[in-house]
Amino acid sequence: MKMTRFVSFILFLTLAMFLVNGFAEDLPKHAITRIDTGEGPVNAIVYAQSENRLAIAAANNIHIYDADTHKELMVLAGHTDSVQAVAFSFNGKLIVSGSTDKTVRLWEAETGKLRRARDEHTAPVNIVAFSAKGDRFWSASKKNNMLRSWYSRDGGRWRAKTSSSDTTTTTVAFSRYGEFFAEAVELPMTFQDIKFAVFASETDTGNDLAPIFTKHTQKIVALTISPSSEFIATGSSDWTIEVWKVGTEPLKGMDLGDPLWILKGHAGTVTTVAFSPNGKILASGSVDQRVRLWDLTTGQHLHTFSNHTGKISAVAFAGDDILASGSSDGTVFIWDLRKIIPMD
Question: Are 319 and 277 in contact (CB under 8 A)?
């Protein structure tokens, strides 16, 4: 009997060690953890520095995680179709989300309580952003470049900006605090070999900023503005990324000339791009199932993560040395960049 128990204990211990080691081996190099929401494709990831939390939009819900322990804290449920965009207020107390169900929802980040839902959009809402004070937020949809400005104190006022009918908007982006709004468009006719452009304007005044006439040969799918509002990055179906140094002064009659960098390396449409908080690193994701890191000082490729099994749909920095990447395979990897990129 004692021998049987001893053998059973050894078998149990061996199995436990095998399982632990097996899971450890499944975690790729430089990965801190892997998150599987179990709900479907990951569409958006955002980080709230003030609260040290991650929000992950997967299918119709938003999952909130502790950014240190990666423990799930709550799930925000209410949208009836895929959540496409999520943003935290600067103080981390509020969350705004936009969905394919054409609604915008405002949530309390601490409790998960739905504060307000709006349904004035006539197309899927794929961009949301907060003002610096957190008393106002914006939402946008691709259809007619519909931009709405919401005041969270009364929730009733809004304003809309519609693009001209002779352009086709492919994606939109806000600066960090919504000071200006950028749209990537396909021009109605080629002008001096220019087919794809980015037009930006001040959100409140409508003053136009200098236009960006890109070198892309196919439509712009990904668009982002650096936290400092100093740079804009575009990702395209032509597999390339362009990084532009922009000014935030109203248009003075000149375009921005040539991009700072044209980044090549992806083997498919670039679907998502994100700047590190210090603006020194750019992360990009593609349908090639790869996440690539780029040095914006030199324009050089730094590293490639190739562990997702579906197209990359979201990348987000949680500080300068932590990156989260999400995929259509429903997974999120949290990467430690300290051994990959130089940290000043």
Answer: yes
Interior angle at CA 237, CA 232 and CA 243, nearest 5: 20
**How far apart are alpha carbons 291 and 310 in whole angstroms?**
11
Question: Rounded to the nearest 5°, which phi and psi values hold at 287?
Answer: -70, -10
Task: Give the domain ranges of the chain.
Answer: 32-336
The whole-angstrom separation of Cα 200 and Cα 210 is 7
Mean pLDDT in residue range 233-258: 80
Pick the CATH number of 32-336 from 1.10.1660.10, 2.130.10.10, 3.30.300.20, 2.60.40.4070: 2.130.10.10
Full-model pTM: 0.86
Residues with Cβ < 8 Å from 199, sequence gap 6 or more? Answer: 182, 183, 185, 208, 211, 212
Span 198-217, pLDDT tens digits: 988 887 777 888 889 999 99
Q: What is the pLDDT of residues 26-70, one digit of tens each?
A: 889 999 999 998 888 999 999 999 899 999 999 999 999 999 999
Residue 160 pLDDT grade (very low, low, confident, very high; cuts 50, 70, 90): low
